[in-house]
Amino acid sequence: MAIKTLAILLSLAASLQAAIIKRVACPDGVNSATNAACCSLFAIRDDIQENLFDGGECGEEVHESLRLTFHDAIGIGSFGGGGADGSMIIFEEIETNFHANLGVDEIVDEQKPFIAKHNITAGDFIQFAGAVGLSNCPGAPRLDFFLGRPSATAPAPDLTVPEPFDTVDSILARFADAGGFSPAEVVALLASHTVAAADHVDPSIPGTPFDSTPETFDTQFFVETQLRGTLFPGTGGNQGEVESPLRGEIRLQSDSELARDSRTACEWQSFVNNQAKIQNNFKAAMLKLSILGHNIDDMVDCSDVIPIPPTFTGKATFPAGLSHNDVEQACATAAFPTLATDPGPATSVAPVPPS
């Protein structure tokens, strides 16, 4: 027994020593990383936190940077495209004119000066900025980041990005074609909408969030998409937009239908008040998305450069004035979770202000 215990202790000591040896000091004299190739990312991280994300806010630039990670990466499949290769920036004049990419040119133009300033490819920068930006949102997972995407050599083809008016069939088929994403992984990726807002789905109401807590990566989005909607004045008249349960909130047709489709409804409901699941599943799905078109074995794991997001300990609730009676039950095998209702009269959700 003593020999076995000694062997275990020696093994643990060797593992610890190996871990210590693997970490290297960076030339800046401040930071260290598991791989020297990651050291250059600290300066980029600090620059974008201060000058792109307004000192570390979970605001519009974070929302748009996270959107860009998806729009760039999903450009791959049976009919071409290089995936997460930065083609959205390198071939901006082509790809930002695709209908599904309406408005993406704004964040592309904001990110381009940082790419020009730092020694990083567009594909790496897009995914890095998305991961760093999300770290500003309380409740978010710490996303993985792998370095080593070569520059795109051709634009992605049109029609690779699903749109809000697409059917559930076409959305699930597009994700499956792009990277073998399952319906459950599609639902996990849509957790990004908990810190998102729309500027162009309905141009008359820019900055309209998809849930009542766009500054927090929580499960509120999965509650509010499952509630019966109301047609408020000035909303619901645009393609891809449907009735929302709250004034000042926008609901995408695609989100509404995925929340109610038999292939995705139970998975959708399962995120309600399950902060650990939304974090773990979104992190895994985002890693898969972020390396589309690349072999992870050829890349360098620089995940330790990504900041640790603030924690979130709150609970999902029904918005004021609404209750379990307002749930449009869609999962046939499990009841909707029991939630408290916010106190007070019904209120309007404020738009996400431009920076």
TrEMBL record:
The keyword Cell membrane does not apply. Its cofactor is heme b; Ca(2+). It comes from the Eukaryota. Binds 1 heme b (iron(II)-protoporphyrin IX) group per subunit. The record marks R67 as: Transition state stabilizer. Ca(2+) 1 binds at D72, G83, D85, S87. Gene3D superfamilies: 1.10.520.10, Peroxidase, domain 2. Ca(2+) 2 binds at T194, D211, T213, D218. Keywords: Calcium, Disulfide bond, Glycoprotein, Heme, Iron, Lignin degradation, Metal-binding, Oxidoreductase, Peroxidase, Signal. Belongs to the peroxidase family. Ligninase subfamily. This is Peroxidase. It comes from Meripilus lineatus.
